[in-house]
Amino acid sequence: MSALYIHVPFCKSRCIYCDFYSTTGLELRQRYVDAVCREMEVRGTRCKVRDARKDLRAESIETIYLGGGTPSQLTGDQLRQLFIYINKVYGLEQVHEVTIEANPDDVTEEFAKLLAELPVNRVSMGVQTFDNERLRFLRRRHTAEQIQVAIERLRKGGIANISIDLMYGFPNETLDDWHRDIEAALRLDVEHLSAYALMYEEGTPLYRLLEQGKVTEVDEELSLKMYGDLIDRLTAEGFEHYEISNFAKTAAYRSQHNSCYWNQTPYIGLGAAAHSYDGQRKRRWNCDDINRYIEGIENGKPQYETEELDDNTLYNERVMTALRTCEGLDLNTLTPPYADHCRRQAQRFIYDGLLSRKNDQLRLTRRGLFVSNMVMSELMMV
């Protein structure tokens, strides 16, 4: 089984912090959708040839994720076209989670009705904050007032699984500001919540403001306090903290698609800048230029690169992804040299209370979550 990711890079405007590949060239939408469908067909046909002895359309998929960019910027006909081709190439019979990312201001009554026609059963919405001033700072298009309206429209349209993204650590944000955002999120009564510290990624407008001294990063101690308070408040409300940045009302509402990335499940990435992984050693990524991507597909010369992972890289990625989850890293899944190395390196962190080990299962403790990058890097092979 595999997961299918389709990158939809279109945005009406770019957010100040975003370093994902995106474009405001909305006039390219139809050519892009046609190219994604063509890529789907070509790669699916190759799978059929390779698996000719098996009764498969291509690779069987269990989850679908339309991410971006802003997938809700596609028209209804364009979204319908994508799902027609997904069904044609991969089939939808065994798919149990279909997620689309959306901005609150794109969730019109018509958009909610459209989703009811499609196989979509989960919506991930970029809320970020409920403070209009901070939303303007981020150059988000929606207002705090539109968030509740969007949720109501999605519910009316039959979406019973909604996830929202929040950010914390804004310049000049106080702990009380963050607490108000958490409470506002809880009042929405959504099934899933992801929260991330505001990052100053090189090359973004936000990073340039930092370089120019126009904004100041939040104090690290305050950022950690915000994260800790988030964990306390959501777990007190019964949410499961199943991954460093992710919380679900119950295990049934975990993001099954994103869990594929943390569990080394194979995934297929379609579209500009999309990545694929065969679950063993091979990675593939499409070029991060929409014009090159479209022209390559149209000319029968898709623009992508591949990489074969060596043993050390596979081990390091396993450490990094597994320890992000509440299940942790099962040492018995590692080959002896790597399992032995990991046990040795983990001892001091167990002693310091940053890792726990039970039945050869390594997990970050509550204290370990706050220094997870350091712990993970020390367990890796150089």
Shape summary? globular
Mean pLDDT: 93
What topology, given as strand order, has the largest sheet? 7-8-6-5-4-3-2-1-9
In N-to-C order, the SSE pattern is EHEHEHEHHEHEHHEEHEEEHEHEHEEHH
Distance between the termini: 32 Å
What's the gist of this structure?
The protein is an alpha/beta fold. The protein is built from 14 helices and 15 strands.
Task: Provide the descriptors you would attach to this structure in a database record.
382 residues; alpha/beta; TIM Barrel; Arc Repressor Mutant, subunit A; 2 domains; 9-stranded mixed β-sheet; 3-stranded antiparallel β-sheet; 15 strands; 20% strand
Describe this structure in words.
This protein is α/β, with parallel strands linked by helices and 382 residues long. It contains 14 helices and 15 strands. It has helices spanning 29-50, 76-89, 109-117, 132-138, 144-156, 175-187, 205-211, 220-236, 256-262, 290-298, 311-322, 336-351, 366-369, 372-379; strands at 2-8, 61-68, 97-102, 122-128, 162-168, 192-197, 240-243, 246-248, 267-270, 275-277, 282-286, 304-308, 329-330, 355-358, 361-364. α1 crosses α10 (290-298). It starts with a strand and ends with a helix. Mean pLDDT is 93; it is low at 52-57.
List the helices and strands and how they pair.
Blueprint (H helix, E strand, L loop, with lengths): L1 E7 L20 H22 L10 E8 L7 H14 L7 E6 L6 H9 L4 E7 L3 H7 L5 H13 L5 E7 L6 H13 L4 E6 L7 H7 L8 H17 L3 E4 L2 E3 L7 H7 L4 E4 L4 E3 L4 E5 L3 H9 L5 E5 L2 H12 L6 E2 L5 H16 L3 E4 L2 E4 L1 H4 L2 H8 L3
Parallel strand pairs: 1-2, 1-9, 2-3, 3-4, 4-5, 5-6
Antiparallel strand pairs: 6-8, 7-8, 10-11, 11-12, 13-15, 14-15
